[in-house]
């Protein structure tokens, strides 16, 4: 029965996909391409591309895509549930103990050590997006400056200025830069 | 807040008890986690500025440090970051019912969007207008993440805590330049923070 298979596969994806983002791609690929043949490798690559173009985590996007293809809306719901359920239970257990013990000196110390690391985590994810956006390349290399996209540089600078100066809602920045992107990259070009 | 009652019993339960769990509260929780999920373009960490704007700056449900703690916990769990973070915020504010509301509102946007897109994804993928919009959004998203990193970085430098500054710089180098798995960075930094607090509190008068 397809629903049970979807549930079982995506429970595993949800339970074993540590690290987030692209680190979990091999796990999803193993379940949907290699073990179950639900998608071809090309379709899987398409799912990755579409995930980059749509909001939401790639694991949930893949769940919906595969579920829809195999068993329609109910398949999508089943796969999404399978993917999100294990981590929800774990988050509840960990959250319960975190809120119970977070005033303890030891727990406080652990999280004081973690906060600067979380800032760095966000910074390194941001660096990758920044370089991709401004230079149209994946990683820092020599000669990167010849690829510079001045339109993106200007949009980045203006967005950052608005955010720093007026604490604008990030959603408006996203919508605004999307509209301006459509104008400068599509209409004018 | 309209229903705010001062509560001096226990600090950690302050928010939980002083906020009335009525329809209005769940509606606000649903809508805010829904919009965070609906705008997580460009990888999981975009949720940090989105959550900061909603939960910290606008609704004052949690503070910035607690938000970073939630991100650290979420990153240590399997599964999508945005699911863990939303469930933790929901649980923090309203227990299990809050967690369930957050889970539903977080899972809904990708479910709806991908269901629709999967029907005509070949056309979507190659559409030049869609690609132009996304190219523009990329620059905006880079700025949004830069903004939250600048705020967090300034806070840590201002704290004049040498260890925090070292952890921040070292973990950035480890993750960005050396591609170290983030799980290791979290384990090492958490352990370091724990050990240092314990040794410190043994030397001085123990803090409560």
Question: Can you give a write-up of this model?
Answer:
The complex is a heterodimer of chains A (189) and B (208). Chain A has 189 residues and is mainly α. Chain A has two domains: 100 residues, no CATH class; 41 residues. Chain A contains seven helices and no strands. The longest helix of chain A is centred in the middle third of the chain and has 44 residues. The radius of gyration of chain A is 21 Å and the shape is globular. The relative contact order of chain A is 0.07. With 208 residues, chain B is mainly α. Chain B has two domains: 110 residues; 47 residues. Chain B is 77% helix and 0% strand. Chain B has nine helices and no strands. In chain B, helix 2 packs antiparallel against helix 3, helix 2 crosses helix 5 and helix 4 crosses helix 5. The longest helix of chain B is centred in the middle third of the chain and has 39 residues. Chain B is globular, with a radius of gyration of 20 Å. The N terminus of chain B is likely disordered. At the A-B interface, helix 1, helix 3, helix 4, helix 5 and helix 6 of A face helix 2, helix 3, helix 4, helix 5 and helix 6 of B.
Give the SSE layout.
The complex is a heterodimer of chains A (189) and B (208).
Chain A: H1 2-16, H2 25-35, H3 41-53, H4 58-101, H5 105-135, H6 150-166, H7 170-187
Helix pairs in contact in A: 1-2, 1-4, 3-4, 6-7
Chain B: H1 14-18, H2 23-38, H3 47-58, H4 64-76, H5 81-119, H6 121-126, H7 128-158, H8 162-177, H9 182-203
What's the quick description here?
The complex is a heterodimer of chains A (189) and B (208). With 189 residues, chain A is an all-alpha fold. Chain A has helices at 2-16, 25-35, 41-53, 58-101, 105-135, 150-166, 170-187.
Looking at this protein, list some descriptive labels.
heterodimer, A: 189 residues, mainly alpha, 79% helix, globular, B: 208 residues, 2 domains, 9 helices, 77% helix
């Amino acid at each position: 029965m397809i629903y049970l298979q979807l549930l079982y596969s995506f429970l595993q994806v949800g339970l074993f996909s540590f690290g987030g983002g692209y680190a979990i791609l091999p796990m999803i690929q193993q379940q949907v391409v290699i073990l179950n043949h639900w998608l071809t490798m090309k379709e899987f690559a398409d799912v990755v591309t579409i995930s980059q173009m749509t909001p939401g985590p790639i694991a949930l996007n893949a769940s919906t895509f595969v579920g829809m293809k195999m068993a329609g809306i109910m398949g999508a719901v089943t796969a999404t549930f399978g993917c999100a359920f294990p981590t929800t239970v774990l988050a509840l257990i960990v959250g319960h103990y975190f809120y119970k013990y977070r005033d303890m000196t030891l727990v406080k110390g652990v999280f004081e050590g973690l906060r600067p690391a979380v800032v760095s985590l966000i910074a390194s994810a941001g660096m990758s997006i920044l370089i991709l956006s401004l230079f149209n390349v994946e990683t820092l290399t020599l000669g990167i400056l010849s690829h510079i996209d001045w339109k993106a540089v200007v949009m980045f600078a203006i967005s950052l200025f608005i955010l720093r100066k007026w604490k604008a809602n990030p959603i408006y920045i996203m919508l605004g830069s999307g509209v301006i992107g459509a104008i400068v990259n599509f209409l004018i070009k | 807040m309209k229903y705010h009652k001062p509560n001096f019993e226990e600090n950690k339960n302050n928010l939980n008890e002083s906020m009335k769990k009525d329809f209005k509260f769940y509606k606000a929780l649903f809508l805010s986690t829904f919009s965070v999920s609906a705008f997580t373009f460009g990888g999981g960490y975009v949720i940090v500025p989105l959550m900061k704007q909603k939960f910290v700056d606008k609704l004052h449900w949690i503070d910035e440090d607690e938000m970073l703690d939630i991100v650290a916990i979420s990153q240590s769990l399997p599964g999508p970051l945005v699911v863990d973070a939303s469930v933790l915020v929901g649980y923090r504010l309203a227990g299990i019912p809050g967690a369930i509301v957050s889970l539903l509102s977080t899972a809904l946007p990708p479910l709806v969007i991908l269901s629709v897109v999967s029907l005509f994804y070949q056309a979507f993928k190659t559409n030049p207008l869609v690609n132009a919009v996304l190219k523009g959004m990329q620059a905006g998203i880079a700025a949004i993440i830069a903004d939250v990193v600048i705020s967090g970085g300034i806070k840590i430098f201002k704290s004049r805590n040498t260890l925090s500054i070292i952890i921040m710089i070292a973990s950035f180098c480890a993750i960005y330049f050396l591609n170290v798995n983030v799980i290791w960075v979290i384990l090492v930094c958490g352990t370091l923070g724990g050990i240092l607090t314990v040794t410190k509190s043994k030397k001085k008068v123990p803090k409560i």
